[in-house]
Design a protein that fits this description.
- The chain has helices spanning about 5-15, 20-30, 40-50, 65-75, 90-100, 115-120, 140-150, 175-190; strands spanning about 55-60, 80-85, 110, 125-130, 150-160, 195-200, 205-210.
- By secondary structure, it is α/β, with parallel strands linked by helices.
- It has a seven-stranded mixed β-sheet with strand order 3-2-1-4-5-7-6, sandwiched between helices.
- The termini are far apart.
Amino acid sequence: MSAEKHSSWSYAEALSREDAVLSRARERGHELGVEAVSAGTGSLLTVLAAGAGVRTAVELGAGVGVSGVCLLRGMDDRGILTAVEPDIEHLDAARLAYSEAGFASHRTRTINGRSQDVLPRLADAAYDLVFVDGARTRVAQDVLEAARLLRVGGLLVVNDALDSDTVPQPAVRRPSTLSARQAQRFLRDDERFDTVMLPTGTGVLVAVRRS
C-alpha cells in the first residue's frame, strides 16, 4: 500500500467516533482476548442496517457486543437481532453491552452455540441482514447458510473478508484464507447476488440478494 493510500485509509477509519458504551465493550474485549470490529466497520454496520430498514438480523459471532450494538442502532426500532456465539462468557459480555446501550431484552435473541448447529434451525428467507463474523475457517460454510436465510433484497456482510490481508497473496494457503476465498467465489459466481469488497477495517464483503 502506498503511503498516500495508507494515509487515506487511516483518515477514513478515524472519522468514526464511539461513545462510552462501545468503549467499555472494547475494554471487556481486551480482557477476554476478543478483537471487536473496527470503529469504521461498526459505523458501516449502522449505516447498512439503517439504509436497508433492517428489522430482522442474524450475527454469527457476537464477540463482546460491539458489532451487535452498531447493528441495533441502525435497525428499525422494532427490529430484532439474533446473535449466535459459542463462548458463553463472550455472549454474557455482549448481553451487557446491549443492555448498557439501552436496548430492551426483547430486541435481542442470544443463542449460545456453534454456527453449524444453530443456522440449520433458522428459517429460510426470513432475515433482512446476516453478519458473518464467526470462526474464520468456517466462513465459506457460514456464507452458504447465510444465503439461504436472506430474503430477496437482504444484505450479507462478511467481516475480515481479506483475512488479515492474506487473501490477495496466492502463496498463502492457510485454512482461514482458503475459506475466505471460497466464500468470495461463491458470492461472485452466484447470479442471485451483487457483491462489493470494501477496504474498511480488515476488509468487509457486502452482498445484496437480488433474487
